[in-house]
Amino acid sequence: MAARRIAKSAVDWVAFKERVPARQQEFYRAFKHRNDLFVNKVHQYPAELPKIDFAVYKARLPNPALADEFQKAYEGLNIPYPADKSSAVKQIEDEEKSAGALSKAYIAERQAEISDAKLLLSKIDSLPKPEEMTMEMYAYYFPDLAIDPVKRPTFWPHIPNIQPGHKDAHNL
Amino acid sequence: MLSTFAVRSGVYGSALLRGQAPRVLAVVPIGSRHKSEAAKQAETWEEANKIFYGPERDTKNFPHPVMPQESGKVRMGFVPENWFQFFYEKTGVTGPYFFGVGLVTTLLSKEIWVVDHGFAEVIGFFGAIWLLSNKVGAGMAKWLDNKNDLVNKERFEQPIVDAKASAQEIIANNEKAIWQEDGQKFLWEAKKENVALQLESVYRQRLAQVFKDVKSRLDYQLEVQNVKRRFEQTHMVNWIVDNVTKSITPQQEQESIKVCIAQLKKMSVPVATA
After folding, report:
1. Residue A155, min C-alpha distance to chain B (Å)
2. What CA–CA distance (Å, rounded) separates B217 from B227?
3. pLDDT (tens digit, 9 = 90+) per residue, B218-264?
4. If DSSP states are collapsed to H, E and C, what string results for B39-106?
5. Paired strand residues for B79
6. Which of A40, A49, A168, B166 would staple A161 via disulfide (CB 3.0–4.6 Å)?
7. CB of B156 closer than 8 Å to CB of A130
8. Do B187 and A16 touch (CB under 8 A)?
9. HSE-up (13 A, CA, CB side) for residue B199
10. What is the pLDDT of residues B81-119, one digit of tens each?
């Protein structure tokens, strides 16, 4: 036989299930069900060509040569293993390749987030202690949030909810 | 006196609370921002660190100002300790007291500090302050300190704790996502396996088909033979019986009947006599 013979699923479905995100568990279940169907279909029939008791036929048939002929033909029979005509495997491999590119990008994105978080973790302890922090230092460490009368002039006392345009500004 | 708790608690807390916009250590959650922003923030911090704590900063001559947690020591409730130290170098222990008394005496005698009708208020004023700082001062300082600690926690400590927690969570979540993404290999394996399983099932169907067909042909041959033999047998039997019945003449029939009756009679006698 050219293709590999397979009788039961070699995939580690338990490990697979663990790795499926919670929101995709339903798809996983459907997929597993499909696989189970295929396995059941395989097990409907025996794996090998069933034996025929030619001795009985030889004894009973008036023409044992006929039985012999049948036996020879039956034992010499080469049943072709079905070929993957629609090249489904190739399609799957192509799909795998394109999905692999996507997942590589996704993993790169996740890695970037991880490295960002690690960077933050490593740097956050380098911030000065609150008793050392002056307003000037705050402006250096957080230039986007400190009071900046040149770039972002605000009204005293420089809190957001009294600035014009804020939704609570009319209360004042 | 008032300055005892004014430095420690009041100034900082109330200034932060009322006078200014809330200054929070704003650590933006990472998940919601663009990739380079964490790096940008880290860069900003590093630059600021270089300015305030870097090698170019002369921390010896210009030490970093640190907000005192407690006010300096005082004598007699309000006179700073370091004034006494300043006099101690030059005049000894009694010098500062002598200077104080002399100063007040001078002011009074030169009528720089005029004793007028309002002079009694001075005594009352300092008396009231002494009374308040003794009776209410401790509680007030505690209250303000608590407030101050709350502000500290809310504006400085909690954001840092939160940011660390969220960073840890982001790391854990992303690592899990990567791990789950790696699980795709199972999917492709299973998909290929599904194809193989279908091929296998078709192959097995073919095997079963061959078996069924060959066996049915053999059975057919067997059945043909059986039918033939049965037919031959019945035909033979019928033929023999027919021929025998045909060969019997009426005379033979009568004779045989007679013989039969005689035999019957013979058989009936013993029964009758018995």
Report:
1. 10
2. 15
3. 888 888 888 999 999 999 999 999 998 888 888 888 888 999 999 99
4. HHHHHHHHHHHHHHHCCCCCCCCCCCCCCCCCCCCEECCCEEHHHHHHHHHHHCCCHHHHHHHHHHHH
5. B75
6. A168
7. yes
8. yes
9. 22
10. 888 989 888 888 898 999 999 999 999 999 998 888 888
pTM beyond cutoff 0.90:
no
DSSP β-ladder status, B79-80 and B74-75: antiparallel
User: Would you tell me which residues 50-109 of chain A have a C-beta closer than 8 angstroms to some C-beta of chain B?
Assistant: 50, 52, 57, 60-62, 66-67, 70, 74, 77, 79-82, 84, 88-89, 92-93, 95-96, 99-100, 103, 106-107
Contacts of B69 (CB under 8 A, 6+ apart): A131, B8
| ipTM value for the complex | 0.76
Residue in B173, B170, B45, B176 with CA at minimum distance from that of residue A117: B170
Query: Residue B107's closest CA among B92, B122, B93?
Result: B122
Given a cut of 50, whether residue A1 has pLDDT beyond it is no
Residue A149 forms contact with B (CB below 8 Å): no
- Quote the distance between the C-alpha of residue A42 and its chain's center: 26
Per the CB < 8 A criterion, the answer to whether A44 and B222 are in contact is: no
Task: Give the model confidence (pLDDT) of A65-122 as tens digits.
Answer: 888 888 888 888 888 888 887 888 888 899 999 999 999 999 999 999 999 899 999 9
In chain B, what residues touch A44 (CB-CB under 8 Å)? 201, 204
**Which secondary structure element, helix H or strand E, spans residue B183, and what is its range?**
none
Q: What does the pLDDT look like over B136-180, one tens digit per residue?
A: 988 999 999 999 999 989 988 899 999 999 999 999 999 999 999
Q: Residue B74: beta bridge partners?
A: B80
Domain ranges of chain B: 2-182, 185-269
Letter string b/e over residues B118-148, b meaning 16 or more CB atoms within 10 A of that residue's CB: eeeeeeeeeeeeeeebeeebeebbeebbebb
CA distance B211 to chain A (A): 7
